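[Q] Does anyone have a clean structure-token version of this?
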Amino acid sequence: MDNLKRHNTPVHVISLGGSLIAPDTVDTDFLKKFKRAVTEYLSEDIMRKLILVCGGGATARKYQQSYTSIIPDAAPEELDWIGIRATRLNAELVKNIFREYTADMVVTDPTAVSVFAGRILVASGWKPGFSTDYDSVILAEKFFAGTIINLSNIEKVYSEDPKKNPDAVPMDKITWPEFQKLVGNVWKPGINVPFDPVASKRAAQKGLRVVIASGSNIPNLLSILRGDKFTGTSIVPA
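[A] Here you go.
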């Protein structure tokens, strides 16, 4: 009965890019707008719940870069742990911003949670070897959310890196095999891809759908949450 009950409860997982929370310093303007949008969405239906998984942003990058400038041969695992600590700082901030909806502690191990009491559950990084995208996939599995909304500073997935090829084409939809060819299958701390390779492999195996969209477009976020027409890229099973 517990699984059925949770299955029938509308839960969306949002992978909230650190580039939105702290692109350089903490973006309080974005966070205020994001809170208003989430509050509006939750107010429309008392059964709605959200899981927000927070990335590390500039805090992670700056600390990782500082470390490698001192220790050039830094191990990837060491850099990952620095990034993970940054995600936890961002997650604590976001949790407290939504304090009227969050009754649970920040999730640091997505495999150790099966229920949450509030209407919003906030999660951070877990362990080395992948980004918070992977944590989002695990939480989507556990709470029967068929779609993960991945918000960052990019609007769509392109056929190639638009910084390298100005003729790269934005796509509205792409299958997991096609997407995996674009991002590869190797994780590196600080890798700059729309959805990390390790998370992509698991999402593909589980048949999940991931929506890549710009987090700064708040009305568009509400359209995604409500199931309306939106701007972004859907990564779908083949």
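[Q] Thanks! Anything notable?
[A] Confidence is low (pLDDT under 50) at residues 1-8.
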